[in-house]
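S1.2 Input.
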Amino acid sequence: QVQLVESGGGSVQAGESLRLSCESSGNILRFNIMGWYRQAPGNQRELVASITSRGVVVYADSVKGRFTISRDATKNMLYLQMNSLKPEDTAVYYCNADREVGPVEAVRTIHSWGQGTQVTVSS
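S1.3 Output.
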């Protein structure tokens, strides 16, 4: 099982920026998809941004134009640059990595999660 460790969270004012980092214990190009999720108190965990092994990127509508997901395969790192932060971005942010294994007729997905990092945005 791969280990994912997030860092970079903190408390900021609205309009400021943060950069989250996720270090993988394994080669990140082995994952079919990696992403950032977040969970606010009382809410379900939601996708913030994801990137496939081929570099296809998806963003939640609420963060488009403000957040940027990127990776550095040479360092096995995933990043989330968060600009123009809003109070509604306050949540615990989790790094995720999915890898499909097994034969085509019986493929299964291994999900890996980090421990989460708190982001708090005050108005």
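S1.4 Remarks. Residues 90 and 120 are 5 Å apart (CA to CA).
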